[in-house]
Amino acid sequence: MTLNLDMSFYSVICELGNCFYTPETDLSDMSLTRIVEDLQTGQLEKVRAVLEFNPAEGWCNDITGDVLSAAFPADGEDAEGLEDAAEDWSDYRTERLTARTAGVPVRVAA
């Protein structure tokens, strides 16, 4: 099997409490259709950015708005409200998981 790095890959940045993370994803699942499906089915929550990149050509684009519009066409009509609407995409709107309840140590600087 050969690795072709001259193609577009997609990565998602999500938020958990006061930190950002990228969900572990197999290389074969770093496709646009897979990310849209995962958003629609609730596998990805609190998405803050979706990045399209090509390692061979050395470029990266923020395509968050396009991906969210594709995943949630009814929500995408108000482009200015996308960032605010990101808080409400989960099926668990009233059950927010914080870092503390997830067991992630919280460090506070004084």
Write structural notes for this entry:
The protein is globular and about 40 Å long. With 110 residues, the chain is an alpha+beta fold. Helices cover 19% and strands 21% of the residues. β1 and β2 (19-21) form a beta hairpin. The termini are far apart. It has one domain (9-88). The longest helix is centred in the first third of the chain and has 9 residues, at 32-40. It contains three helices and four strands.
Short recap of the structure:
The chain is an alpha+beta fold. It has three helices and four strands; from the N terminus they run E-E-H-E-E-H-H.
Task: Provide key terms for this protein.
110 residues; alpha+beta; 4-stranded antiparallel beta sheet; 3 helices
Describe the strand arrangement of the main beta sheet, using strand numbers.
2-1-3-4
Rounded to the nearest angstrom, the radius of gyration is 16 Å
> Mind summarizing the main beta sheet?
4 strands, antiparallel
Report how far apart the termini are: 52 Å
Judging from the principal axes of the Cα atoms, what is the shape? globular
Total number of strands = 4
Order of helices and strands, N to C? EEHEEHH
Number of domains: 1
Judged by helices, strands and strand pairing, the structural class is alpha+beta
Mean pLDDT: 76
What is the count of DSSP helices, taking H or I runs of 4+ residues? 3
Beta-strand percentage range:
15-25%
Helical residue percent band? 10-25%
Low-pLDDT segments = 78-96
SSE arrangement:
Layout: E1 9-16, E2 19-21, H1 32-40, E3 47-54, E4 59-62, H2 64-71, H3 82-85
Antiparallel strand pairs: 1-2, 1-3, 3-4
